[in-house]
Design goal:
The protein has eight helices and no strands. Helix 1 runs antiparallel to helix 3 and helix 5 crosses helix 6.
Length: 150
């Protein structure tokens, strides 16, 4: 993933005299026109390079985007934006493409917020507070859900 991030930086700094497409994809799904031209044997001219001074100015952003700490979050499908990630959890419980009443949407938002903040174990706490019996299948469900989350 780090190479994919830096590929865009090198791609945009490339000029005809100094092409820098070593990190651009060479697989069948080529997004880089330079690599496409190489694959077909066609000639390629760089049209839209960003000046090196500008690229050097934005380089710290690329350094932060490719930091290990941030990339580890991406491996777990955690968004950089906490609200975006919470919204994803809410819409998993209450998909936007179907109609749900206000009670269901409130439940989805509440359950998602609890699960997002404290994990699936928060459901068990809510059930205990509501004096809902803690049957064996609830424990099994919660245990299986915890395993899936890891």
């Amino acid at each position: 993933m780090r190479d994919a991030i830096w590929a865009t930086w090198f791609h945009k700094i490339s000029i005809d005299a100094k092409p820098q497409h070593h990190l651009c994809s060479t697989s069948e799904t080529l997004w880089c026109p330079f690599q496409k031209a190489n694959a077909t044997g066609a000639e390629f001219k760089h049209k839209h390079s960003i000046p090196e001074s500008v690229m050097e100015a934005i380089k710290p952003i690329y350094v932060r985007l490719s930091a290990d700490e941030l990339l580890k979050k991406c491996l777990d499908f955690i968004s950089q934006n906490g609200n975006e990630s919470l919204n994803h959890v809410i819409w998993n419980r209450c998909p936007k493409d179907r109609f749900f009443g206000a009670k269901r949407v409130r439940w989805a938002a509440s359950d998602a917020a609890c699960s997002f903040n404290d994990g699936i174990k928060s459901r068990k706490t809510v059930m205990e507070l509501l004096k809902i019996s803690n049957r064996a299948f609830n424990d099994v469900f919660l245990a299986n859900s915890c395993v899936k989350q890891r």
